[in-house]
Each structure stands twice: as C-alpha cells, then as structure tokens.
C-alpha cells in the first residue's frame, strides 16, 4: 500500500524564478555561517526556514508546508520539523539513503529532469511539487538523473518528528505550530 501524498505549491509556482534566486542566496548564507559547504549532510545543524528568516516567500512556503503536513497527518498533535537545502550538481546527486523519522518529505524548487526512486514507487520531480510520506524502513530512496543537466538541482528536504520528550542534539528541529 502506497502511503504518500503529492501536493503542488502555489507559492513556488507563482514565484519560481524568485525562489531559485533565494535558494542561491540561502546557500551562500549557509556557506558563510558554516565551515562546510554541504547543506544537505549538515541538516542537523540548521533549519532552512531559520536560515531564510524574514524572507516573505519562505514564510509563505512554510505556512503552505505546515498546512500540507497537517493535512497528510490528519490531526493537530505536537510536531517538530527539520528542513535543509539540497543544492546539487550532477556529480553530487543523492545516492540511496533513508530517513529514520516518522515522516519524510521534500519540496522540488528546481529539480531538473530527475526522478526520486523509492523501494516501491517512483516520483517524477516537477517544480513546486511537495512529496510527503512515511520515513523509516521501506522508504529508502535515491535520485535518478533522467536527462543530463548543468547548474544546481535545488530541493528542500524535511523530516517530521511526532515523538515527544526525546532528547536530541539536532539543532534543525523546530516546532511546527
């Protein structure tokens, strides 16, 4: 049984080129704050929505994402979200990996011509698409390049936690109020 859902972001659709510019700005800001330029594998050190605080497009996207997450989960229990910027050239594309969280998702900003391949299904990535599904076992995935591209493939990854009172050194988790 497939238990994922796809949403389409009106905020990204209506502001596509601005989002790409803002993601480049966010990546530059990340690089100036952290010694590493790998915003993906340093996901636990920041939250992309904190990194882009006061940016109105990211504010609107956060509100939209919160709505979609709540719609997917179906209730108002306490939740926390970590989110990070994936900013990849073709040789940096994501290999097979998993997310050991109750829920996982990603937002395609400029996904190029790629497909996210899960163990049981595939998602053809399009700008503005939000994927939301379970995390953990059975949902490992990787990104397949369907057509060679230049530049950066830009997505925002996120995980959602619903387990209360767990101790973590993850600085990226923030409440989803």
Description:
This protein is an alpha+beta fold and 177 residues long. The protein has one domain: Jelly Rolls, CATH 2.60.120. The chain contains four helices and nine strands; from the N terminus they run βααααββββββββ. Strands 1-6-3-8-2-9 form a six-stranded antiparallel β-sheet. A three-stranded antiparallel β-sheet has the order 5-4-7, with no helix packed on it. β4 and β5 form a beta hairpin. The longest helix is centred in the N-terminal third of the chain and has 18 residues. The model has no long low-confidence stretch (mean pLDDT 94).
Structure at a glance:
25% of the residues lie in helices and 29% in strands.
Q: Give a short account of the largest sheet.
A: 6 strands, antiparallel
Structural class by SSE content: alpha+beta
**Overall structural domain count:** 1
Which CATH class applies here?
Answer: Mainly Beta
Which helices and strands, and how do they pair?
Blueprint: E1 5-8, H1 10-14, H2 16-33, H3 48-51, H4 56-73, E2 80-88, E3 103-110, E4 114-118, E5 122-124, E6 129-134, E7 141-145, E8 153-161, E9 174-175
Antiparallel strand pairs: 1-6, 2-8, 2-9, 3-6, 3-8, 4-5, 4-7
Provide the descriptors you would attach to this structure in a database record.
single chain, 177 residues, six-stranded antiparallel beta sheet, three-stranded antiparallel beta sheet, 9 strands, 29% strand
